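Quick start: what a row looks like.
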Amino acid sequence: MTMANEAGHPPALEYEKLIMSARPQVYLTRKECFSACHRLHSPFLSEEANRQVYGKCNNPNGHGHNYTVEVTVRGPVDSKTGMVMNITDLKEYMNQAIMKKLDHLNLDKDVPYFKNLASTTENVAIFIWDSLKLIMNKPELLYEIKIYETDKNSVIYRGEKHTVGHHHHHEAAKQPRVTNSSENSSNLSSDSDG
């Protein structure tokens, strides 16, 4: 058992070791906004299927959004700096991965990543995640990308991968699928305001 000093605290060296081994983990989030246009259209679907799946968002002339992106990093608070990450560094990473690559661009025509991939907000979140991971000094700190596409719709991506074949069919089979009337309409895309 460790001896305590007069104030009831463990000796300084022991206390420092305790602090270093159990440093608090903190989540740090920075927000950025960018504007971009796109057309929801999948090269893997027919023209008719694209119209049915994406509805008005499949308009050949496209449409635009003012996206709000929140990037969250997670990690221990550095004992010397008192920070998980310098916010100036996070700002610069976001500038490189988001603003320079997406702001005021046509996602489908100006961003090669979306040449053969539907530019849904889900895919934009994955693109931002992957772009940040490539440039961050400590990519293991990246925790979450949250994109607000509209005031009503947002997407969160934390880097998880879905392994094909590991569905929970037996659980889904037990639960009745409840639909609302809007699901029976033509537009089910995440891009709509519904």
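That is the whole record. The two ends are 61 Å apart (CA to CA). The domain at 23-157 is CATH 3.30.479.10 (Tetrahydropterin Synthase; Chain A).
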